[in-house]
Each structure stands twice: as C-alpha cells, then as structure tokens.
C-alpha cells in the first residue's frame, strides 16, 4: 500500500503550482531555474507585487515564494491580501534579507508559514518547499475527504427525510382511503395549502413544511367507526359528536415527537375544523387564536371536499364551492385567506385539473 501512495504523493508535489513574487528579476530567474531543475513545471512569477493576488487566484497556486521588501505593496501587504481572499491561510514561504526579529514575527502573524534567508541555500530552500507542499497536499486530501463524507451524510439525511415524508404521505392516504378511495384529496389540498401559505407570506421552507404536514390533517379518521364515517345519510347528533373526535384523535396520534414536521402536523389535525367566528371544533377557538396552518388548511380542505364526491354526497360544481368559500368569509374562514384564495384561484384550479377525481356514480 505504501509503495502505491509514495509515487502518488510525489506526483502531487511535483504538480504543485508555485508562485514567485519578488521585485528583483535576477532573484525570480534564479528561483525559476532551481525549481525547474528539481522537476517543478508549474511556475508562475511576477516582479510587480500588485499582480500577486490576481496570479494566485487565476492559477490556484499551492505555494507562494514571497519577498518582503518590495515597492508598491510590500510582502506584508501581499500577505494580508492573500489571507483575505482564502478560506484558510495560504501556504507562503517568505524569502527575505531582513534579519530583524520583528519583521519575521510580523510576517508569521500575517500568515506566513516559514522563512528562508537571502542569499538562500539551494538544498534548504528545496527541502522547505517540499515539506510545505507535503503538508499542503495532505490538507487538500483531508479537505476533499471531508467534503466526500459531508456529501454522503447529506445524501443519507436526504434519504431519511424522503423516507419519513413518504411514510407520512402514505399514512395520510391510509386515512383518506376510508372515505375517498382514490386518496387524491390529500394531494390536492396539500398543494392548495402550500399556494395559500406562500401567498400569505410564508417562506419557501415554511410552505414546504405545510405541504408535507397537511396530508396528516384527517389521520384521526382511522379511529372513527365505519358505520359513522361511511354513512350515506345525515349523521345523528350523537354520531356527529363521535365524528368530531377525529380532530383530537389525530392530534393524539401525532403527539409525543418534537420534530417540526410532527408539531405542524399535530397543529393542523387539531385546528383545521376550528372556525374564524369560534363556532368550530374541538375547542371553539376563534380568529388568530387558531394557528395559521390550521386556518389555511381549513380553506383548502373545505374547497376540495366540496368539489369531491363522497359516500354521503355528490361533488359540488366549482362555481358553487367558490361561492360557499366567499359567503363564509369572516365566519368560517379567515377573511384574508379567503381573499388570497380568490386571487390564486387559477393556480388552485390548475392543480385540480392535474389531479382529477374519477367519475363516480352515487
């Protein structure tokens, strides 16, 4: 294994991109000659320190051989510029004739990694360059490996999220199948809810959460007996009281987990039958006491339910359903949401046309 890694490391070192910044042409030529003789082909250089940063960026350099005493911008200034444009400290080897301690400490504080004094020793120079490039290569390899691991974690997390959402959708459909064989109601009303949420000022993330949580709004129906849920005629007062318990049953099913998705789903299950004027159930809340997600789903759910055939009723024409929503503005429904419903009706009807119910004869 080691015999394979060493040639790869050697190739990586020799393929490194080296930038020379020195205002003395003779120094630049000498450094180029030494590096080329050692087998470094990717060498870039400038005698104008003002070009250093642009050359560094354009060529994605691995190491900078930098003089300190230069006109226009000295080496300290170049160091500051390089540090400001990189995510981490650039690999900089300072070549300087300055002997004072303060200059060296200042360069190190500004981001330099090492020093070689002028006039430099060829063997020492090449050894320091090689050592710095080895560290640079290892750091790049570790960074790439971390990126790969982060991508794998992201993909795995996304898979888990998608699986969780699919389970939620299927549970919602399981409840919906009890009184709507196609299960398309939850697809339509959840997308209606998303549109209304965005129109009401929700962020994309909040509207997506509403889209994914709203399919659970009627999960409590699984606790309602068939003779009540599927009754073709009008419910008796006693049966209606049992029917209304599906809101609290759903909230109980969805309780006990603190994830945002489950919290929103629980709010919707509990609140989507509350009414703006306080005449709804299960708690008789009114106005802004009703969570926004519940008020949104109330509009979306009623509109789709009215226009869908159920065991106990025929589908209403769209025009009549729209009139019902408008007539109940400020009583059943949040007035602002009714206005947004009317403004976005073409988009809602577009969704309805994409997911139509099959014709059913009652």
Please tell me the CATH architecture of the largest domain by its name: Orthogonal Bundle
Question: What quaternary form is this?
Answer: single chain
CATH class of the largest domain: Mainly Alpha
Described by the principal axes of the CA atoms, the overall outline is rod-shaped
List the helices and strands in order: HEHEHEHEHEHHHHHHHHHHH
Structural class: alpha/beta
- Annotation, overall tally of beta strands: 5
In percent, how helical is the residue content? Answer: 55-70%
Strand order of the largest sheet: 2-1-3-4-5
Name some characteristics of this structure:
2 domains; alpha/beta; disordered N terminus; Rossmann fold; Hypothetical protein af1432; single chain; 5 strands; 6% strand; rod-shaped; 362 residues
Would you write up a description of this structure?
The chain is an alpha/beta fold. It has two domains: about 1-145, 3-Layer(aba) Sandwich (Rossmann fold), CATH 3.40.50; about 160-355, Orthogonal Bundle (Hypothetical protein af1432), CATH 1.10.3210.10. The chain is about 60% helix and about 5% strand. It has 16 helices and five strands. The protein has helices at about 1-15, 25-35, 50-60, 75-85, 100-110, 120-175, 185-200, 205-215, 225-230, 235-245, 245-255, 260-270, 290-305, 320-325, 335-345, 345-355, and strands at about 20, 45, 65, 90-95, 115. α12 packs across α13 (about 290-305) and α13 (about 290-305) packs antiparallel against α14.
